[in-house]
Amino acid sequence: MKFAFFILYLIQLLPFCLIHKLADFVGFLAYYAVKPRRKVGETNLRKCFPEWSKTKRTAVLKCHFQHMAKLMFEYGLYWYAPAERLRRFVRYQDKHHLDDALSTGEKVILLYPHFTAFEMAVYTLNQDVPLTSMYSHQKNRAMDEQILKGRHRYNNVFLIGRNEGLRAIIKQIRKSGAPFLYLPDQDFGRNDSIFVNFFGIPTATIAGLSRIAGLTGAKVIPAIPTREPDNTVTLRFYPAWENFPTENAEADTQRMNDFIEARAREHPEQYFWLHKRFKTRPEGEPGFYG
Question: Other CB atoms closer than 10 Å to residue 65's CB: what's the count?
Fold first, then answer.
C-alpha cells in the first residue's frame, strides 16, 4: 500500500495535462479489464437511460471509466501537492450563495452528490471554508491513516464516524457552525432508508437531509463539481432551497433525488455509475445485478 502512495506522489509531480493523459489511457484499459464494475455500470445506465442506444451507453461508460481514473490519479495532488497548485485547477461559480448564508450566521448543509470531480473540488473548498463531514474507517490500516491525514490536511475539517449516527451530526453542526458536507446518493441498505424514485426507479434512499435540516434549522445549498474539457473543475453552488424541509419526509427525499437526477442528466459521464445504487430492492422485487 505504501508503494501505491509513493506512485501517487510521483504522479503529482507530472504536468497536469500529462496526469490526465495517463488517466485517460488507464481508464480505457480499465473499462475492458475490470469486468465486474463494467457490468454494474452497464446495468445502471441501461436502467436509467432506456431511451439511449446501446452504443451511446457504451460510449458514456467508457468515458466514465476515464473520469474515475482521473479521480484516482489526482489523489497525489490532493495529498501531496502544494495547496496553491490545487487551487489553480478549481474555480467557484455562484459561491455567494454559501458566503451569504455563512455571513449571516446560518447553519448550512451542502448537498454534495457523488460526481467524479468531488475530491478535487472539496480539497480546494476546504482551504477556504471549514467543513463537517462523515467518515467510514477503512479496513486497511495504512489506507485509513493516509485518508485521515489527507482529510485533515488543512486543519479545517470536523470528521464524524459513520457509526456515530444522527445525534453526533446534529451536535457538530450546532457546535462548529461549519457547513455539513452531505453525500446521500449511495445504497446504505434497508435500515434508515425509504424508497423514492431515482430515474423513475424505486431506490433505497436515506431520508436524513430533511431530518437534519429540521433539527438544526440549516439551509440546504447544493454544490456540484463538474470537470471541464481542460480537466479543471468548476464547483457550482445553487440557491438555498426554499420551503425545506416540509412535514413530508418522503416528498423532501424525492425532491433531493430529483435534483441529483437532473444534474446527472447534464453530465452523465461524470456521475458515479460503478456503485450498486439499486442493490436494495423493495420486498419481492428481484435484484438488478445478478
Answer: 26
53-59 long-range contacts, CB within 8 A, separation 24+: none
- The pLDDT tens digits for 118-147 are 999 999 999 999 999 988 888 888 888 898
Residue 123: burial class (beta carbons within 10 Å; 0-12, 13-18, 19+): buried
Q: Do residues 186 and 275 make contact, with C-beta atoms less than 8 angstroms apart? A: yes
Residue 243: all three cell numbers together? 420551503
Q: What is the pTM of this model?
A: 0.95
DSSP E strand stretches across 183-288: 193-198, 201-206, 219-227, 233-237
Spatial strand order of the sheet with 219-227 comes to 90-93, 233-237, 219-227, 108-111, 180-182, 131-135, 157-161
Cα 16 from Cα 96, distance rounded (Å): 28
Question: What is each CA distance from 184 to 46, 80, 101, 117, 209, in whole angstroms?
Answer: 22, 28, 22, 16, 8
